[in-house]
C-alpha cells in the first residue's frame, strides 16, 4: 500500500498544473459549503441571541386595522387599545408578570449644537423589566416620576453617543420637541436585531410625559401598543388566552365578532424566523455542494485522460507481474489524493472566507466542526465515487493490447 501511495504521488507531482486544476472544483466546493453553512449558522445564532435579549415570553398586543372609505388600513392603525385595557390586564391576569402601555414616535433630540433623530417611547417603568433592559449609567425613571409626568428621559447607548460623545450624559438637559428633559440614565447596549435594526437607537420617557407634553393622540387614552411578559416560557399560551378573553369582554365583542386587536407571541415570530434561516442555510449548502459534484466529474474526466495516456505504462506493469487490482488501487489512490488535498485546501479557504466576511461585511458567521467534517467527508466520497470508474477501466486493460498502444 505504501508503494502504491508513493507511485500515485509521483504520478500526480509529475503533472503539477493538471493536478492543481483537477483539484480546483473540490477546493471551491468545500470552501463554498463551509462558507455558506457558516453564514447560515451565524444568522441563526443572532436570532437566538435576540430571543435571549428581548425575552422569549414577551407578548405584543397591537390595535386592529382601521377602515376609511371602505379601505382597510394596516394592522395597528386603529385606536382600539387604551390605558385602561393595560391596567385591566395587569390586575386581572394570572399568567402575566408585567404589562406596559406604549406610545411612540420618531423625534429629533437636541443637546447644544448636536441633534439626533430616534424613536421616543412613552411607557411605564415596568417596560425596562419586561424588555430586560439593563442600566449602564444613572438610573431608570421611577413610579413617582411616571405618575407626575416628570420631564426625564433614559437614553439608549447609540443616542447618548451621538449627542454627548464620550461625555457623561446623566444630569444634562436635552430638548425633545422644545421640551427640556433631564437625562437620568443610559441603557446598557443590546446591539442589533437579526435584521440589522439598532436596538440601542432609542429613548424612553414616562408615559404621562409623552402623552401630555410630546405626542398628541386623537383618541383619548389610546395607546399604540401594549407589551406584556408572561410569568415564564411555559405560561405564554395561557397568558395569550387570558389577554384575548379580557380584551374581548372589555370591548364588548360578541362571539361572532372578530378580535379588534392582535396578540403577537414574540417567541413564535422569532422561531419562525429561525426556521426560515435554517432552511435558507440548508439550501445554500445544497447549492454549494453542487460544485463538489462538478469537481468530482472533473476528477473522473482527468483520470480517464490519464488512463489513456498511460496505457503503455499499465501494459508494462502488468507484463512484469502487476495484477488488475494493483492497477485499480493505484488509480483509485490518485483520485483519493486529489480529493483529500482539495478538501484540506478548501477547508482553509472556507474558514478564511468566513472570517473575511465577518471582518469586512460585519455579518456573523459560525464555522462549526460539523460543517468542516461534512464538507471534507463529502469531498472524499466524491473523489472515490468518481475515481472508481477510470480505475476499474484501467484494471481491465489487456496487457498485450496495452503494450501495442501508441
- Radius of gyration from the alpha-carbon trace, in angstroms: 33 Å
User: What distance separates the N and C termini?
Assistant: 29 Å
Which percent bin holds the helix content? Answer: 55-70%
User: Strand count, sense and closure of the main sheet?
Assistant: 6 strands, mixed, barrel
Q: How many DSSP H or I helices?
A: 13
Q: Can you give the mean pLDDT?
A: 83
Low-pLDDT regions: none
- Please report the total strand number as a whole number: 12
Shape: elongated
Strand content: 15-25%
Strands in their spatial order, largest beta sheet: 4-5-10-7-9-8
H/E series: HHEEEHEEHEHEHEEEHEHEHHHHH
Q: Structural class from helices and strands?
A: alpha+beta
Q: Could you give a quick summary of the protein structure above?
A:
With 406 residues, the chain is α+β, with helices and mostly antiparallel strands. It is 56% helix and 18% strand. The relative contact order is 0.19.
How would you describe this protein?
This protein is an alpha+beta fold and 406 residues long. It is 56% helix and 18% strand. It is built from 13 helices and twelve strands. The chain has helices at 2-13, 16-54, 83-92, 126-130, 143-148, 157-164, 207-214, 236-250, 266-309, 311-319, 324-361, 369-395, 399-404, and strands at residues 58-63, 67-68, 71-72, 96-111, 114-123, 135-138, 152-155, 173-176, 179-187, 202-206, 225-230, 261-265. The protein has a six-stranded mixed β-barrel with strand order 4-5-10-7-9-8. Strands 2-3 form a two-stranded antiparallel ribbon. A hairpin with a 2-residue loop joins strand 4 (96-111) and strand 5. Helix 9 runs antiparallel to helix 11 (324-361). The longest helix is centred in the C-terminal third of the chain and has 44 residues, at 266-309. The radius of gyration is 33 Å and the shape is elongated. The two termini are 29 Å apart. The relative contact order is 0.19.
